[in-house]
Amino acid sequence: MPNLSLSSGLQKTTSDAGKSLRSHVPDFFCRYASGDVGLVDVRRPDKVDDPHFELTRQLCDELGWKYTVFTGLESPQAETLEWLAGYRTDRYAPTPEAHGILLGIFDTETSLRSGVRAASRRSERTRDVVLGNVLHLLFHGELHFDPLLPLTMESTIRRRLEASP
Fold it and tell me: 154 or 165: which carries more pLDDT confidence?
C-alpha cells in the first residue's frame, strides 16, 4: 500500500499494563494514500517478541490503525538493494543528456542488457558508464524492476513503477 506521508519517532505510546507503566516510541507513523493510518516498528527478527509491540498492536486495533513490525527484507531483495546502494552517489549520475536518453529508452519495458546497449550507442558512452547510470537511476527510483527477482542483465527495466500495458 503506497504511503502518502511518513514521520519517524514522533509518537509515544503509554500503557498501564499490569503493575508498571510502559511506554514505547514506534519507529514510524504512516498515512497511506487510501486514508488509512498506521504505525511501524523496525526490529531484528530475534527482537520481535518485545511486549511493547503487543501493546502497540492492541492500541492500533482500538484506534482502527494498521500496525506492522518490519524485520527486514528477504534475499534477493536485501542483497540487490545493498548492491544498488553502491551506485547511489552522484559519481554514477547520468549527464542531463544521458538521463533523457535513458528515460526514453526505458519508457518501454526492455531488458537491462538491451537498454544499456541502446543508450551506449545513442550517447556514445561506454557500456560500463551507461550501466552505472542505469543502476544509479534504479537506486533512486527513476527506473524500476521487479524487486522480488534477482537483478540481472536480462531483468526487465521500465520507467514507470507499474508494468506497461
Answer: 154
